[in-house]
Amino acid sequence: MKRYISDLWKKRDFNNNWQTKSADLQKQSEFADFAKEIITTNKTILGKVLKYYVEDIVITDMWANVLKPGEMHPPHTHSNNFLSGVWYLESDGNAGIFFKDPRSVADIIVPRKSVANTDNSNLISFVSTTNRAIIFPAWFQHWVPINHSKKNRISISWNIQIKGQLGEHHEFQSANF
Asked: Do residues 158 and 136 lie in contact, with contact meaning Cβ atoms separated by under 8 Å?
């Protein structure tokens, strides 16, 4: 996978905040095993952790990112998907990922903190270490701060959509994809 991404990066036609031109790496033979692992892991999270009944899921998009020293990626979400994820193929711990509580009123009243932690904060971050994967709701706003490293940060990102019935017919709020 790393060689495939490196070859594409060498052929790039622009030099800033590079991403693969197409978001279909899951269809490339070099990524077949990785795509299967993503499906398995995301199904486990949906079923065993979140306790959703899910008929099936599909990777809608998968792409590579190369973040050079001094570059960043602005705040964004991943519309039209249920889960998103990132796996760090190569990183030295710089330019991790930040998430912000999307509730606009979450910080109207903020008590003083005896200890700051993830339970009393509206911002959370994760270090980007090689071979670490982070899976999150696609609606969760996130961004990558400036890469202060002297090395490129290489990652693979993906989006997941649920297939089959969503919601309950008797609640008049269902859909089938």
From this structure: no
Phi and psi (nearest 5°) for 58?
-140, 145
Encode pLDDT of 59-109 as tens digits. 999 999 989 899 999 999 999 999 999 999 999 988 899 999 888 888 888
Token pair for residue 20?
Answer: 């693969």
Say if 144 falls within a structural domain: yes
In the chain, % of residues over pLDDT 70 = 94
- At 14 the pLDDT is 59
Strand partners, 57: 162
Structural domain including 97 reads 2-103+118-166
Distances (CA, A) of 6 to 3, 66, 85, 129: 5, 9, 21, 19
- Taking the whole predicted model, whether its pTM rises above 0.70 is answered as yes
The two most distant CA atoms of the chain are separated, in Å, by 57
- φ, ψ for residue 77 (rounded to 5)? -130, 180
SS3 19: strand
The CA distance from 94 to 76, in Å, is: 19
CATH of residue 56: 2.60.120.620
